[in-house]
Specification:
Layout: H1 5-10, E1 18-21, E2 25-29, E3 37-43, H2 58-74, E4 83-85, E5 101-105
Antiparallel strand pairs: 1-2, 2-3, 3-5, 4-5
This protein binds adenosine monophosphate and zinc ion (ZN).
The site of zinc ion has 6 residues, from helix 1.
Length: 114
């Protein structure tokens, strides 16, 4: 999608600190980190949000979660744990409408989130 920020990162038209990449997924550090580790894990294919997933995307959501586990391992969080968040839509606080998981760790997370 031509006017999507994260599609531009996928296409390497905008720089990002890429920490993991495979054929279907990309992970890069958040520009405004909210934890010692704060990485965004996205599908390379443009999907606006969780509710935009369809039956054809069932494999993709699994690949995305698998990529999250690889990033967490690479960041040294596999033992200590981490939080995965997918802000979805207006009330979910989503600001970039290309689906992404926030992978955050390196500190104790609070609950409930704001
Ligand atoms: P959300 O509000 O859940 O849609 O999350 C969007 C996230 O994208 C925020 O945490 C931003 O800090 C992050 N972000 C925005 N622009 C960039 C960028 N160019 N590179 C990396 N992260 C970004
Ligand atoms: Zn996109």
């Amino acid at each position: 999608m031509s006017d999507c920020l994260f599609c531009k990162i996928v296409e390497k038209k905008i720089p990002a600190k890429i920490v993991y990449e495979d054929d279907e997924t990309l992970a890069f550090d958040d520009i405004n980190p909210q934890a010692p580790v704060h990485t965004l894990v996205i599908p390379k294919k443009h999907v606006a949000a969780v509710q935009a997933y369809g039956p054809q995307d069932q494999l993709l959501i699994g690949q995305l979660l698998l990529a999250c586990t690889k990033v967490a391992k690479g960041k040294g969080l596999a033992e200590s744990g981490y939080r995965l968040v997918a802000n979805t839509g207006r009330d979910g606080g989503q600001t970039v409408f290309h689906l992404h998981f926030h992978l955050m760790g390196g500190r104790q997370m609070g609950w409930p989130p704001g």
